[in-house]
Amino acid sequence: MRVQRLYILAFAVLCFCLAAGLKISGAEQRILPSVRIAGPINPVVAQFLVDELDKAGEARSPAFLLEIDTPGGLDSSMRKIIQSILASQVPVIVYVAPAGARAASAGALIALAADFVAMAPGTNIGAATPVSIGLGGDGQSDEMKAKVHNDAVAYARSLAEQRGRNLDWAERIVRDGASTAATEALELKVIDLVAADRSELLTRLDGQRYLRKGQAHYLDLAGVELVFAEMNWRQQILNTISNPNVAYLLMMLGIIGIFFEISQPGVILPGVVGAIAILLALFAFQSLPVNYAGALLILLALVLFILEVKVTSYGMLTVGGVLALALGSLMLIDSSAPYLQISRAVITATVAMFTGFFLFCMVFVVRVQRSRSVSGLEAMIGELGQAVTAVNRAGRVFVHGEYWDAVADAPVEAGQTIEVVAMAPMMRLQVRAVPGSPGQKDKLTPKNPAG
Q: Which pLDDT score is estimated for 12?
């Protein structure tokens, strides 16, 4: 009897362990893939998000959570994300969080495309008026701006209609730049709920209905575990250089590298670093509203700095280069959006550094240009000697231990102290008599004038 009880107890323990193991295994499979966007939406962020959404679809995840806090971003990147959301096999949840976050501009339209939209208290959504991107920035005609706005309005309304959201509000955020707080957005049927944290979000969304290919499905989020994906090192680097301040500094680094390579050919390293920095800056500028006038002014500054090394301007070219650099930096980004602008402090520090560097170089260049030559024929200028014969247009002099043929504009007596003033053609010295030095033929050291 006791043995039977032991068998029964062992069997019960085994069943309990198997059940617990199955439960744990099931819990491990209940993963909710998630991505957090905290910053502008650029091509790197868009590709990262699309890749993670594709992985969620392949894994047949219960849903996909996109937590955002963004001021907006590039239109082409936004559309790429929206296309991926609309084609997703798994339901997409957009959560504007934490408190104080926003889904502005491109972020608002991405939210409209999601199956479910939630916001944390103290957040806002909207302000989706399109900003021109590319060379020239806001220098579009009124007709072109109207076309861009109408296209964006139609796009926003179509997204709201597909997801059953407020069409008028979708139009206002584009046409008027309206922005709405979380509680008001819920009242206007722009979002589905206001949730204080992720736990409340998942609890309230569990069992909610959504459509795929005309068929109704229901969210099953009970017991899911949130797993946030992170960018790899390559994506993090590319995302970092897309920052306007970083892109600007890369361009300045490229200018310095190219300047050194041109002024000192053969060094190689500055040219390589400068070329890489310029290419990285160009990659970043594709997602920024670059003004071509500002870019040309910065290019002009580079040309003036290089000419300062080649041409004696006594600093005038450097002054022009500094002015061109300052104006070009201020005009480079043509947008009123703060997240697209270069920090004024960065511009001030960069221009000050360039000014100090080139003034430092200019001082040494001028000092070298004004210094006396210490070798070669030019070193003879200013040397003192004696006239071996009378120099009347032509003659012979003794300078620096050597006999030279010489010419003079004014007659010079034999034995008179002379000064070399220039180099004449045919390896002759142009000399002049030193004032107050009478002829001293008898004291002339050389005894063989004919050489």
A: 58
**Percent above pLDDT 90 for the chain:** 39
Residue from 23, 55, 145, 147 carrying the catalytic annotation: 147
For residues 342 and 288, give the distance between their C-alpha atoms in angstroms, rounded to a whole number.
10
Token pair recorded at residue 427? 């390896």
> Catalytic residue at 141?
no
Give residue 400's Cα distance to chain centre.
60
Q: What is the pLDDT of residues 48-81, one digit of tens each?
A: 999 999 999 999 999 999 999 999 888 889 999 9
As beta bridge partners, residue 38 has 69
Q: Which two three-digit tokens encode residue 370?
A: 């004004």
Return the bridge partners of 7, or none.
Answer: none
Show the tokens assigned to 281. Answer: 């800056």
User: Which residue is catalytic, options 34, 77, 105, 335?
Assistant: 105
- Kindly give the pairing relationship between strand 402-408 and strand 395-399: antiparallel
* H helices present in 218-310, as ranges: 233-241, 244-263, 269-285, 292-310
pLDDT tens, 308-354? Answer: 777 767 678 888 888 999 999 988 887 767 777 888 899 999 888 88
pLDDT at 121 over 80: yes
> Among this protein's residues, is 343 annotated catalytic?
no
User: Do 26-233 and 377-443 show the same overall fold?
Assistant: no
CATH of domain 26-233: 3.90.226.10
Summarize the confidence of residues 360-382 as an average pLDDT: 63
CATH architecture type of domain 377-443 = Beta Barrel (2.40)
Distances (CA, A) of 159 to 79, 174, 181, 216, 364: 11, 13, 20, 19, 64
Domain residues of the chain, as ranges? 26-233, 243-370, 377-443
